[in-house]
Amino acid sequence: MTAEPDALAVVNQLRDLAADPMNRRAIVQDQGCLPGLILFLDHPNPQVVYSALLAIRYLAECRANREKLRAELGMMLSLQNVMQKVGGVCVRRRC
């Protein structure tokens, strides 16, 4: 077993922290958390992507965070990629 935490454990911890309104501003202001969440949006494991999306949704519930979220490098492109992947799955499954 590796000493490095796996992606799902890390993103779930960030999601759980973001679920608490008291943590939301600090997470967005931290230099590593938001860029890390954005990287998780491109992860091949759908559970990791879902947890990252949920964490970002929690962070966006704080109005003060919204502009920073919109302006974060890679955020909109990663969200568009997620939408395309989900759209492709729905088309194949006839959602």
From TrEMBL:
Family annotation (SUPFAM superfamilies): ARM repeat (SSF48371)
Superkingdom to which the source organism belongs: Eukaryota
Record-linked Gene3D superfamilies: Leucine-rich Repeat Variant
InterPro entries linked: ARM-like (IPR011989), ARM-type_fold (IPR016024), Armadillo (IPR000225), ARMC1 (IPR016617)
Keywords: Membrane, Mitochondrion, Mitochondrion outer membrane
A Pfam family reported for this protein in Swiss-Prot or TrEMBL: Arm
ARM repeats: 32-74
Predominant subcellular localization, coarse grouping: mitochondrion
Gene Ontology CC terms, in alphabetical order: mitochondrial outer membrane
Subcellular localization: Mitochondrion outer membrane
Keyword Ribonucleoprotein: no
Record's keyword annotation contains Glycoprotein: no
Function, as annotated: In association with mitochondrial contact site and cristae organizing system (MICOS) complex components and mitochondrial outer membrane sorting assembly machinery (SAM) complex components may regulate mitochondrial dynamics playing a role in determining mitochondrial length, distribution and motility.
SUBUNIT field: Interacts with mitochondrial contact site and cristae organizing system (MICOS) complex components IMMT/MIC60 and MICOS10/MIC10. Interacts with mitochondrial outer membrane sorting assembly machinery (SAM) complex components SAMM50 and MTX1.
Protein name, per record: Armadillo repeat-containing protein 1
Protein species of origin: Astatotilapia calliptera (Eastern happy)
